[in-house]
Each structure stands twice: as C-alpha cells, then as structure tokens.
Amino acid sequence: MSTPTVLVYKGSEPLARAAAARVVTRLVEVQAAKGSASVVLTGGGVGTAVLRAVAEGTARSAVDWSRVDFWWGDERFLPTGDPERNETGAREALLDRVPADPARVHAMPAADGPDGDDPERAAERYAAELRRAARPEDHGPVPSFDLCLLGVGPDSHVASLFPGMPALYETERTVVAVRGAPKPPPTRISLTLPAIQAAQQVWVLASGAEKARAVRLALLESGPVQVPAAGARGRSQTAFLLDEEAARFLPRELSRPASP
Ligand SMILES: O=C1O[C@H](COP(=O)(O)O)[C@@H](O)[C@H](O)[C@H]1O
After folding, report:
1. Where exactly are the structural domains of the chain?
2. What distance in Å separates the CA atoms of residue 225 and residue 169, rounded to the nearest whole number?
3. Glucosamine/galactosamine-6-phosphate isomerase domain spans which residues (predicted)?
C-alpha cells in the first residue's frame, strides 16, 4: 500500500476545482493507456462538489464518458431517487450531464430494488457485480479501480465504515450491509477496506474545520478500526486533498500548499 501524499488548497471551492481537474487528468491518462477507466464515487458535501466541478469544467470533453465504469464506495439504503442517496447526488452533479453508458453506471441497490428492504442481500448482489467485473489481472474479487474517491466524516468514517464497526475487521467480504450507522440514515451498504485498498489510487477529500481532527488521525499512525480513514490507502497512490481548515491540525511538513 502507498504512503499518503497531502495536497492543501486555499478553500473548499479551489479544492473542488483542483480535485476535478485531477479526476479528468487521471481518467484521460488511464483511457489513453488501456481504453477504459473505472472510478469509485463518494457522496457527501465535497465529494459531490467535485463531481459538479468536473461536469462544469471545459476539460470534461477530454474524457470519453462512455468508457468509464462508475462504482460507489457506499450508499444510503433508501428507495431509488431518494435525495439522500449518494447515487441521486452523483447523477444530478455529473452523470446526467455527461454521455455515460448506463450499463457502466454500477449503482448500489436501492431499498425498492430486487432485494427489497434487505441490505444484506443487496450487499451480496453488489459484491457479485464487482466479482463479475474483476479480470484475472486484478488478482482478486473486485476490479483494481483506477481511482477511488472518498469523503471523510468528522468521526473519521470513510464510505459507510464507522469507527469500531465489526466490518472494519473484514478480510473476505468486499461489500457489507451496515445497520445502526451513527449518521443517518442508519441502514447503508459499503465497500470494505480490502475492496477500497484494491484501488490503484485512493483520494480522500476533506473540507472544513470539523474534519481536521479526523484528517490528523488518519495520517498519523492510527489504526483503521478506531479511525477508518487511516485504512484509506491505494495500491500505487494515496492522496489527501484538503482545504486549509481540514489541514489545520497537521504538522507543518505535511500541510504544504498544493500551489503557491
Ligand atoms: O454519509 C456519508 O458521509 C461521508 C462524508 O460526507 P460529508 O458530507 O461530511 O463530506 C461520505 O463520504 C459518504 O459517502 C456518505 O455516505
């Protein structure tokens, strides 16, 4: 697993714009190298702002959106179209605004989906979809995603992996149902850390002072059971993209500005 790089931007809007530019660059480079690209999307404030900035940036036309596979790191287990679903936010911010191939938009099942109100079965269904998409060169039950975007909560959760949850000990399953999440809604579906860590690149996005403690813990020697964001690591690259407020508790040597 890779050692995190930290990039600090002046505020939440510069952070979203810079992250969006990096997303476009990453997708273009991967498509140039191997034809298609895969990205894991996140919900949350800054995660959705980044998707909106991608949609609104002129560079978006450099990406062949029909050759991008979209996956999700977690989902709130609610009916299709519910405004609280991460999928709904991602569709409004980006997916409805670019020519994505519907067959490559791999939304997590909804509570009115084929498994009804059964998040465990829905999690198994998503795990099976990931397994089918994995190729021999991925060496595992999920694709080695080209990019995995993650938000982080003030409590240091990533995806829907909250501190102390049994799912944080998971070594086999790639997707789990989450019940009793401390942040509403209580029922969710989430990738596990082994699935996240299969990604080539993992980027953690954090904006605002309420994230500063979680960011510090995630970068300075914490374990992922107590601090799930400490487990957010990619195979070849891990980047923490922060605004100044989210970086305020980092030591000076870690919190250099991304640009002068
Ligand atoms: O509930 C969730 O929260 C996190 C962080 O959201 P934020 O609004 O505090 O940035 C998000 O990454 C995750 O996908 C989501 O389900």
Report:
1. 4-254
2. 7
3. 13-237
User: Which of the following CATH numbers is that of domain 4-254: 3.10.180.10, 3.50.50.60, 3.40.50.1360, 3.40.1410.10?
Assistant: 3.40.50.1360
Residue 181's SS3 state is coil
- 136 CA from centroid of ligand 1 (Å): 32
State the pLDDT at residue 260.
53
The tens digit of pLDDT for each residue in 127-176 reads 999 999 999 999 999 999 999 999 999 999 999 999 999 999 999 999 99
Tell which residue, 175, 158, 33, has the closest CA to residue 109.
175
> Which structure tokens are listed for 84?
């609280």
Residue 56: closest CA among 109, 89, 108, 16: 16
Q: What ipTM did this prediction achieve?
A: 0.98
Cα(51) to centroid(ligand 1), Å = 14
- What is the distance in A from the centroid of ligand 1 to the CA of 258? 23
- Kindly state if the Cβ of 46 falls inside 6 Å of ligand 1: yes
Distance CA 171, CA 184 (A): 26
Q: Whose CA is nearest to atom 10 of ligand 1?
A: 44
